[in-house]
Amino acid sequence: MKKGLLTALFIIFAGVLAACGSSSSEGDKDSKVITVGATPTPHAEILEEAKPLLKEKGYELKIKNFTDYKLINKALATKDLDANYFQHVPYLEQEMKENKDYDLVNVGAVHLEPFGIYSKKYKSLKDLPDGAKIIMSNNAAEQGRMLAMLENAGLIKLKSGIEKVDATVKDITENKKNLKIKNDVAPEMTAKAYEANEADAVFINVNYAIQNKLNPKTDSIELESPKDNPYANIIAVRKGDEDSDKVKALMEVLRSDDIKKFIDKKYKGSVISVSE
Fold it and tell me: Which pTM does this prediction carry?
């Protein structure tokens, strides 16, 4: 009887040890594995370059690729990731407003992707004719960003005093050329809309432009200015993890001179490294 009881206790104890030993590295601040979610271009490419640099610091970097923006913060919030790398602060803030259970923080910017607008018919925004159709993405956090480019080109005027990051098409007070703005296209579909010639001009995020063999610096008819730009791409983590050793190591590498040189050489101005 005693022997059976001891055997049962041993099995239970072994099971507990096995469960502890098999816990996932995601969400474990002390783990030497860093799992980062990212979109393929340029984020995952930059992370691949960071792998050997992190290995020198004693960490293994695992990269999980995503093509749908909406899944990446969810994966971080549910502890499937240690960090993610794909978004800027306005997008993160919008996601936090829409998902009250997300408790995520920005731990620093790595690079800027200047937004571009592309056309198969016209050489500049000023060449657009009356009634021209323009496609924007349905990303609410970037509506103001795209509208500001149209305003800077003199095509529209936005409501006086409106913060550009908060502007929507409803804030357009003047549209002399009667531009037809379509803003219900998913970001990943904008490059396809451009290739299919579905509009006179199409806004395309840099990552999707590069994935579709477009060079933002030479192929766009207008490229966003990096000056005082709030849309730098950041590393986000769960609140409470920002001071962990693994996150500090990740940021040190991504802001290193080696990574800055890689970004400058590979993307030739289409992606711009930032230090803060």
Answer: 0.76
